[in-house]
């Protein structure tokens, strides 16, 4: 486990962008699973400038690792819509390089990635409860591959689903799909990043405490190639 602590959010975002770029420059197919949300916003701003109209990066393929479908809207779900707005569209990524995960193909996701050569890197955030992707406490176990999480989702997850669709009860789905812990751990490299004081407690708990299903991200500490990128506030309890 390598921990990188930068002074502030902008600097940690630049480091995260650099790590992804280092993978992209390889002379082979590169498979990346990337995250949406608020933490990567600045990183994508850097990456857009770095990758837009760079035809020599057409070897890079992108996978979303979870998806929350809208209940009524058609087309992409929450995750892919966010990734499109944050990165794929402004960076002019060729659609042939984007491989969405959704409720129609989640059962074949792990085989598809394996046949594509496996994930070279997966970029994760972390929730205050220690979740990553859609792996909240009580929703998946360490043995789960890519999964459908249905109406038995926890109350916390139901609240997250509601917030992800803008608080619109009419659009809140009753399920989502996610790469499970076992799927994530098959990636050749894991990069997790976090910003802000509100993440300091869970960073210490997840990566300096016991490995437990109660803190899903704690499993990541046993991955042989894990990098954690933090700003000083997120790292304040481990410095």
UniProtKB/TrEMBL annotation:
Coiled coil: none annotated. It comes from the Bacteria. GO terms for molecular function: glucosamine-6-phosphate deaminase activity. Residues 16-221 form the Glucosamine/galactosamine-6-phosphate isomerase domain. Gene3D superfamilies: 3.40.50.1360. GO terms for biological process: carbohydrate metabolic process; N-acetylglucosamine metabolic process. InterPro entries: Glc/Gal-6P_isomerase, GlcN6P_deaminase-like, Glucosamine6P_isomerase, Glucosamine6P_isomerase_CS, NagB/RpiA_transferase-like. Keywords: Carbohydrate metabolism. The keyword Transcription does not apply. The keyword Methyltransferase does not apply. NCBIfam families: PRK12358.1. This is 6-phosphogluconolactonase. It comes from Enterococcus ureilyticus.
């Amino acid at each position: 486990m390598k921990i990188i602590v930068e002074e502030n959010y902008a600097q940690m975002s630049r480091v995260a962008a650099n790590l992804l770029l280092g993978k992209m420059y390889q002379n082979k197919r590169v498979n990346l699973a990337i995250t949406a949300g608020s933490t990567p916003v600045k990183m994508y701003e850097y990456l857009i400038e770095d990758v837009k109209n760079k035809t020599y990066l057409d070897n890079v393929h992108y996978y979303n690792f979870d998806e929350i479908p809208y209940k009524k809207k058609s087309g992409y779900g929450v995750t892919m819509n966010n990734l499109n707005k944050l990165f794929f569209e402004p960076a002019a990524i060729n659609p042939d390089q984007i491989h969405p995960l959704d409720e129609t193909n989640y059962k074949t996701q792990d085989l598809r990635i394996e046949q594509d050569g496996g994930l070279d890197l997966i970029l994760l955030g972390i929730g205050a409860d220690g979740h990553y992707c859609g792996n909240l406490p009580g929703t998946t176990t360490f043995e789960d591959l890519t999964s459908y999480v249905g109406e038995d989702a926890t109350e916390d997850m139901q609240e997250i689903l509601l917030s992800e669709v803008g608080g619109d009860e009419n659009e809140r789905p009753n399920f989502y799909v996610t790469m499970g812990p076992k799927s994530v751990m098959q990636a050749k490299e894991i990069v997790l990043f976090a910003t802000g004081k509100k993440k300091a407690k869970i960073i210490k708990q997840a990566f300096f405490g016991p490995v437990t299903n109660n803190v899903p991200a704690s499993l990541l500490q046993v991955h042989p190639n894990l990098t954690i990128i933090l700003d000083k506030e997120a790292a304040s309890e481990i410095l």
